[in-house]
Design a protein that fits this description.
Elements lengths: L7 E5 L4 H12 L3 E6 L2 H11 L3 E5 L5 H14 L3 E6 L14 H20 L5 E10 L12 H20 L6 E7 L14 H9 L13 H12 L10 E4 L7
Parallel strand pairs: 1-2, 1-4, 2-3, 4-5, 5-6, 6-7
Helix pairs in contact: 1-7, 4-5
Length: about 250
Amino acid sequence: MSKHAGKVAVITGGATGIGLATALLLAEEGAFVYVVGRREAELAAAAEALGSRGAAIRADISSLPDLDRLYDTIKHKHDHLDILFANAGAVETLPLGSITEEHFDRVVGTNLKGTLFTVQKALPLLREGSSVILNSSMAGSRGLPGFSVYGGTKAALRSFARTWTAELRGRGIRINVVSPGPVDTVALDIHAKTPEERAYIRAHLGDHVPLGRGAQPIEIARVVSFLASAEASFISGVELFADGGMAQI
């Protein structure tokens, strides 16, 4: 397919889950994809899966020097960027009354600080017609127990998209948000302490979803690909829910 032929894409948190599924899809559709992550083994596996269609770069988006190194590498090799999927995020939950400063700083440092500077530092490389997609969550729109900090950061991404759409007016850069519901990824494992608990979570992933199931990563990847494509050329500043209806009723 040639949906994204000749484009250069960056996907943070790209070595597993939604990020990896999106990387492989965009590469299949013609893009050269840089996957960004922190864990060497997973990055190596992602790079092998992409082959000549992409590359892996180790970087922590909460570290500004890491982001500088990431974009310096892309500038040296490609000199521009067409697609940025700001997907990396810290998924941690604690109920009100148990929230610690460390928890707050980790989640905000990645989901807000990291996302903001991921986009800001990409601006010199983003050319007219490029697409930025922020990965939020339906948790930013629903009151889910234990998700105070996480849900708050994801709601803030919606505000980022609105503000940046206004600020980048005239540059032809589209900023949109994708907000998934429950997705079958390794991120689910943070809620489980045993293999039995992990199996239970997956078995009941769709209990509160009108469609009756959780999503697979490729289903979110297809939404990202659409938002990054010419098919969405007049879509900017929106939040597109890919949640099986969970936050809609």
